[in-house]
Amino acid sequence: MNKFKYYFILTFATLAIFSCSKSDSADVEPLRDFQEQYNTDIAVIEDYLEANTITVTNNPGQTDDQNVKIELITKPNEQKSIKSYLNSPTFPTLKVKTVNLHNVDYKLYYLVLREGTGESPSNVDGVLSSYNGTYLFRKAGATTTDPSVVTATQFEEVVFPQTFYDLYQMIKGWGEVFPEFKVGTAVGDSASGTIKYNDFGAGVMFLPSGLGYYAGGSGSIPSYSPLVFSFKLYALQRLDHDGDGILSYLEDKNGDGYMRDMRNTTEYPNQKLGDNPDDTDKDGIPDFLDVDDDGDGYTTKVETKRPDIIIDGKTISNGYYPFNGAAKDDLSTIYIDETQGVPAYIQATKTFDYTSPERTRVYLDNTYPLKK
Question: What is the pLDDT of residue 16?
Fold first, then answer.
């Protein structure tokens, strides 16, 4: 399934092109208002949360561990609704966060079955995740007075994922929810040649269509469909989207743990050049996609290169500084001090600071007097 976040935007463009044809214009549905569609979607989602219950499988070390079954409540006095887990102090717990997009404050519900024990991905990392996806719809002619009329239809299931999914390229809701969870531990099974994951994060996300495919739909998913994904977060992969040697999750300019790309005017219709807090040089390109973060005409790769060394008259490349230095110097690498991360340049003393946590690294300092 193609989950690229701009899928529906391409569809918008296609709709616009066809709308120029007089013969076809009457057949093209105008793009729906984001706020009005969200109002419809959230009513469907909240009715679904009220009308359904969950059964979770706890089976550590096995494939079905943290599998979740969602089914209609048939015994109201015995079964708890999903909505009843809202802010529960124990797992499962239903959480809600606000996501501002399209000039809409989306209410995003996600159910935490298990948080996980390791690191959390950022919204620009890769994740290895199994998932089950369904879309929601309200039966024709139904009203909100009967929540059970909301139906879920499965469109895809991946039990054994074979690749990492880049959250930056996925639908918006994935990049909002996965960072709320953590990976677990991986143990190799020499007998089978497989890897088993334990203590991984697991949950369910309930996405309004504006955080999914919106007007475009995808495959068998109808347009404007709210989506439900149950998932397990097995592992993460730190990515470098602009290939500048600085991992994308480290290019968080304002330190809030979230990277923004505000060039998409459909998502951010009122954004202005320089609004993005994750854009150092305010050129409209976020640092994690910008090969020259400080806009001084020298690429990050050039500015983070260690000085070459000369041995027996030969010039040898000394590689690049890491973002942060290691705790200890590896004495076996006599020409490299591993404790030296990307330095800051101190103008007053014309010296370098390699270790201060809050230093402004040279590739973010357009006053750094780099010479070619």
Answer: 43
